[in-house]
Specification:
The chain contains two helices and no strands. The chain is mainly α. Keywords: Membrane, Transmembrane, Transmembrane helix.
Length: 39
């Protein structure tokens, strides 16, 4: 019965945010490294 309130929180929303955040950070990192190499 204690598991029911946890299920109300949509895990896909949290995973989606983490994926987007990870992709944004990765894009910034690779963009910075790419520009750093070109310079």
């Amino acid at each position: 019965m204690d598991d029911e309130p946890i299920k109300l929180i949509d895990p896909w929303q949290l995973d989606g945010r983490m994926v987007i955040l990870t992709q944004v950070l990765a894009n910034l990192f690779f963009s910075g490294a790419y520009l750093g190499i070109n310079e």
